[in-house]
Amino acid sequence: MPIRVLIVDDHSVVRQGLRMFLGLDAGLEIVGEAANGAEAIDRARELSPDVVLMDLLMPVMDGITAIGHLRKELPEIEVIALTSVLEDASVVAAVRAGAIGYLLKNTESDALCNAIRAAAEGQVQLSPEAASRLMREMRQPENPDALTERETEVLALIARGRANKEIARDLQIGEKTVKTHVSNVLSKLGVQSRTQAALHAVRTGLVPAADLARS
Question: 36: domain CATH number?
């Protein structure tokens, strides 16, 4: 089954360009477009995409606000922030809202396609620069609930960039069970995304910083 993608950007030329070169990848299916965050939420409800490519600076509702709404209402959908802005505040805000990835619009098409596939699998993949910014700026979760031994194992594998299928294989459990554990980990830590959970794993010493999202 191809990965279903929703493109969100207030510039029609950008949407057309993304649709054109992403459409060349047989593993991806562009299911729709939206011109702002509010429209993105409506389209996501209607189309149930696997991954949303979300611009950040848009009228009506900005991308960061939309990411937060999507993660709360449709947590099974992964969101990649795709923007021309590279600022610490934007990176942190997007990840805090629940984005699993943060890419610039000058990203090569192959790299973007690979990032979409990784997001669909729930993989955390951070460049050293992005990880450094996030580690510096993002706060620890306040008074997180204690994780079980199994949830701790799942968290360590999330931080190392493992997809759900890989976690299931490594721990010899079902993929549905992995999804349940991941959901519990996010809930107990009080975070919106696997990326935030991975940063928590590094900060608490569960995983060395050098292992963060290592593929």
Answer: 3.40.50.2300
User: Under a CB-based contact definition with an 8 Å cutoff, are residues 202 and 208 in contact?
Assistant: yes
> Is residue 30 included in any domain, yes or no?
yes
Lateral strand order in the sheet of 3-8: 28-34, 3-8, 51-54, 78-83, 101-104
Encoded tokens for 82: 């795709």
Mark the ranges of the chain whose per-residue pLDDT is less than 50: 214-215
The dihedral built from the CA positions of residue 181, 184, 189 and 190, taken in this order, carries a sign that is positive
Element housing 7 (H / E): strand 3-8
**Does residue 197 belong to any structural domain of this protein?**
yes
Q: Specify which residues 81 forms β-bridges with.
A: 54, 102
One domain, residues 93 and 24: yes
Please give the Cα distance from 59 to 10 (Å, whole number): 7
Evaluate whether 19 touches 64 at the Cβ level (below 8 Å). Answer: no
In a domain, 134, yes or no: no
Residue with tokens 């928590």: 200
- Helix 175-189 × helix 149-159 angle, to 10°: 90
Fill in the amino acid letter for 209.
A
d(CA 100, CA 182): 14
- The pTM assigned to this predicted structure is 0.78
The C-alpha atoms of residue 81 and residue 83 are separated, in whole angstroms, by 6
**Other beta carbons less than 10 A from residue 74's beta carbon:** 15
Confidence (pLDDT) at 63: 95
Compute the Cα dihedral for 113, 118, 124, 128 and give only its sign.
negative
